[in-house]
Design a protein that fits this description.
Helix content is about 60%, strand content about 5%. By secondary structure, it is mainly α. It has 3 domains: about 1-60, Conserved hypothetical protein from pyrococcus furiosus pfu- 392566-001, ParB domain (Alpha-Beta Complex), CATH 3.90.1530; about 60-120, no CATH class; about 120-195. A hairpin with a 5-residue loop joins strand 1 and strand 2 (about 20-25).
């Protein structure tokens, strides 16, 4: 807005012939707020599908930018992702979309609009567990993969969270480098003071 006040609108707002803004959403909002005249450029080559491509040139899109884009196109998984981010504000966004997908979703795949949520109930259990684990700095990649395996096996998340709070610090401070080692850590936490022990 300061730039437009001082110099005017130097770069046109690019639109398709249906008046969808392809590039220049922020310039449009600034002009509207300032009641400044618009300069609009129309071209045959512009279409709504080029929004991502053109906007990435100016500013690298965040995980949230992609989510807003695909949610606005009606892809429900991305709308759910945005809602979940509000519920778990302390968890990293990449961990959240992986938890929703119940895997390790490649960022390139996420950026193409391919986020899926195969089982929202299990994803929520995993997110609850991740939130508790993050309090003890237990969210490294091996820990995350172990937690996914734990949730997919159907073990009691409530029991694991309860035991995570009860176990001695020595069990919580391990920093496993491999998933198999992380699985052993979480087994020990789950089995703490239990008669019926599990083995993942």
């Amino acid at each position: 807005m300061n730039s437009i006040k001082k110099y005017g609108l130097l770069v046109p707002i690019h639109c398709d012939y249906d008046n969808n803004i392809i590039d220049g959403q922020h310039r449009y909002a600034a002009c509207k707020h300032l009641k400044h005249p618009l300069i609009i450029s129309y071209r045959d080559s512009y279409d709504i599908n080029r929004v991502v491509e053109l906007n990435r040139v100016h500013k690298k899109w965040s995980v949230t930018d992609y989510a807003h884009h695909y949610a606005s196109k009606g892809i429900e998984a991305y709308a759910t992702f945005l809602e979940i981010c509000k519920e778990y504000p302390t968890l990293p966004r990449t961990k959240i979309y992986n938890a929703l997908n119940l895997s390790k979703l490649d960022i390139r795949t996420y950026r193409t609009g391919a986020l899926t949520i195969p089982d929202l109930d299990k994803s929520r259990k995993l997110l609850d567990l991740m939130q508790e684990a993050s309090k003890y700095h237990m969210m490294s990649s091996p820990h995350y993969k172990a937690l996914v395996a734990y949730v997919l096996e159907g073990y009691s998340i409530e029991d694991l969270i309860k035991n995570l709070r009860l176990v001695p610090d020595t069990l919580r401070i391990e920093r496993p480098r491999r998933v198999v080692d992380a699985l052993r850590v979480w087994e020990d936490i789950y089995n703490y003071k239990k008669r019926h022990k599990i083995k993942l």
